[in-house]
Write a structure and sequence with these properties.
Radius of gyration: 15 Å
CATH class: Mainly Beta
Number of helices: 0
Strand order of the largest sheet: 6-7-1-2-5-8
CATH architecture: Roll
Helix content: under 10%
Number of strands: 8
Strand content: 35-45%
Structural class: mainly beta
């Protein structure tokens, strides 16, 4: 379990990318320089929620430990203690893997 002392604000979500596949279904090994960054990750922390025009806070749908698929170009990549994370808005999350 990854432990990080960072709390996203509002509708932001902190995600740790999951490792990309090392080889194709046919058994071909993919070299590191040919791999795309995965669009799948594990939610580590979530903000309190988005604020509506009337001031009410709407909680987020995702929660810590959810595995999610997110938009390819969404979010901001950050590096903490040599490890890469991504912070993005909940609207950039496309699906929760069940």
């Amino acid at each position: 379990m990854t432990s990080i002392n960072l709390q996203p604000l509002y509708d932001k979500v902190l995600i740790e990318r999951l490792e990309a596949e090392q080889k194709t279904k046919g058994g071909i090994i993919i070299p590191d320089n040919a791999k795309e960054k995965p669009q799948k990750g594990k939610v580590l922390a979530v903000g309190a929620g988005s604020r509506s025009d009337d001031g009410k806070i709407t909680p987020l749908t995702v929660k810590p430990n959810d595995v999610v698929l997110f938009a390819k170009w969404g979010g901001t990549e950050i590096k903490i203690e040599g490890k890469e994370y991504i912070i993005l808005s909940e609207k950039d999350i496309l699906a929760i893997q069940k």
